[in-house]
Specification:
This protein is of the alpha/beta class. It contains 10 helices and 19 strands. The structure holds ligand FHN. The site of ligand FHN has 8 residues, from loops.
């Protein structure tokens, strides 16, 4: 009787296990048994392993472009300078919709030259660009057939996105299309759905959004991905099923498409990470104007950091207030991002006439000058797995034994400390800018070295290349051991 009961209980437990395994399988093998069942959570546990994503991972440095009608007032309205982010001027400044929307009749960027934008990016060393096709104000930089609020109805009349995609691609730069889900121009957009009427309106808006996204993917087939924004409102975070379905549809249309973690909410309205803490998207999009401090902060995800030059402006603002980042600071941010396995994306806000402000051109040139000599330490590099030191950042070349020390702080001794994991030693050390110069490597204690350089006169960051030997065990052990 007892045995019979135990067998029955065992059968029940087994049955439940099989059932839960089926549930797991139905959710694309993502969740573990101890997680919250989700229909619209993450669909993958680990990083993507395909070549498109591998290329994205190797970009290192990118450019962001915020351009739209807001560039015309450039942060100034009725003679008053507005202090918030220029692209939000309509909302922050309480400008009536019809007044703001009539900026469309002033959009005629006679100095717009996509080739020269692309050349600036190329010169800076950017490997990809993220371009606003439509920001929160809803103005489309492409002639969308689903709304009248586009370039086609401006005095300029012509498509902006197509020529940009072509010009950047010609320079070997990949394009990602920025798209704001929130759309202040669309009558169907709601911040929150409170009534039946809201719900009907928002259903129409969802169809419109789907149409526009498929239109973009069909019109610009070389675009590598979509960078979503404006997905935080109560209306959108309830659209888990719709967004999930749409994401699948877009991925089916463009295999390899890269979509960050800002697009879809999960069943409980959670964004970026689902209710089980898993990333929803191909990379983490939460690093806006901030950079992680240590590798643990990125939780094993791919990620990029998007950064403004002044503290607050994405779109063109005539007044750049507060601290303006320098070339060296921006190079350091790039190095830090790559050292933690991410890409660094620097924002540009072109003017209403289509030209790029001088400050941005100068920054691009300054970064580019450094990148031309040192890009080997940035492109196709990743977290090197070494302990961070005060002099700067380690990056590691994917698939090789090369490690780069990107130096921002030079010790007065001229000796740079390197700590290696056990069973690893340094074969050679050299300057990236002078590959034939061999630097002296001194083994100072177990797995610890000093790399010696002679004094430097310039104030630019520079790079030391280490060739590591991961097979030969520890180095000579000739250092003087501490005596007890
Ligand atoms: O509101 C926008 C902002 O204007 C800008 O586009 C940034 C870029 O990451 N995204 C939003 C704020 O998170």
């Amino acid at each position: 009787m007892n045995i019979h009961f135990n067998i029955k209980r065992f059968g029940l437990v087994l049955g439940l296990m099989v059932l839960s395994l089926n549930v797991i399988y139905a959710q694309e093998k993502v969740v573990k048994t101890d997680t919250i069942p989700l229909k619209h959570g993450a669909h993958r546990i680990d990083k993507r392993t395909d070549s498109v994503m591998a290329k994205w991972r190797g970009y290192g440095l990118g450019q962001f472009i915020h351009w739209g009608l807001y560039a015309i007032p450039g942060g100034e309205w009725n003679g008053k300078t507005y202090n918030g982010a220029a692209e939000w001027i309509r909302s922050w400044n309480g400008i009536p919709k019809s007044t703001y929307d009539s900026l469309i009749y002033k959009f005629n960027p006679t100095k717009f030259n996509p080739e020269s934008w692309a050349k600036t990016a190329k010169q800076m060393g950017a490997k990809y660009v993220t371009i606003t096709t439509k920001h929160h104000d809803g103005f489309c930089l492409w002639p969308s057939k689903y709304t009248k609020y586009t370039v086609a109805n401006s005095p300029y009349k012509k498509d902006i996105i197509g020529p940009l995609v072509n010009a950047y691609n010609k320079e070997g730069i990949d394009v990602i299309l920025y798209f704001s889900i929130m759309d202040w121009n669309q009558p169907g957009w709601r911040y929150e759905i409170k009534t039946k009427e809201d719900s009907i309106a928002f259903e129409g808006f969802k169809k419109f959004t789907r149409n526009q996204l498929l239109e973009l993917l069909n019109k610009y087939p070389t675009a590598k991905g979509l960078w979503f924004d404006g997905t935080w409102d109560k209306s959108w975070v309830k659209q888990a099923a719709f967004a999930d379905e749409l994401e699948k549809e877009m991925r089916a249309l463009r295999p390899g498409l890269i979509i960050g973690s800002r697009f879809r909410p999960d069943d409980f309205g959670k964004r970026h990470n689902d209710s089980n803490g898993r990333l929803m998207g191909d990379y983490e999009q939460g690093w806006e104007r901030k950079i992680p401090n240590k590798i643990e902060d990125v939780h094993g995800n791919d990620w990029d950091c998007v950064m403004t030059v002044p503290e607050n402006q994405w779109g063109y603002n005539k007044a750049w207030n507060g601290h303006i980042k320098t070339v060296n600071e921006l190079i350091e941010m790039t190095a830090k991002c790559v050292s933690l396995g991410g890409n660094f994306v620097l924002n540009f806000g072109p003017k209403g006439d289509g030209s790029i402000r001088k400050e941005e051109i100068d920054l691009a040139a300054g970064i580019g000058n450094w990148m031309r000599v040192n890009n080997e330490a940035i492109y196709n590099c990743q977290y090197a797995g070494l302990e961070k030191q005060d002099w700067g950042y380690f990056t590691g070349k994917t698939g090789s034994n090369k490690v780069y020390m990107i130096i921002f702080n030079v010790p007065v001794s001229g000796a740079f400390r390197v700590k290696l994991p056990a069973k690893t030693s340094i074969t050679t050390a050299s300057l990236l800018e002078q590959p034939n110069t061999t630097l002296k490597v001194e083994e100072i204690s177990e797995n610890q070295y000093f790399i010696h350089t002679s004094a430097r006169a310039d104030n630019k960051p520079f790079v030391i290349v280490l060739d590591l030997n991961k097979k030969a065990g520890n180095a000579s052990g000739t250092y003087e051991k501490a005596k007890i």
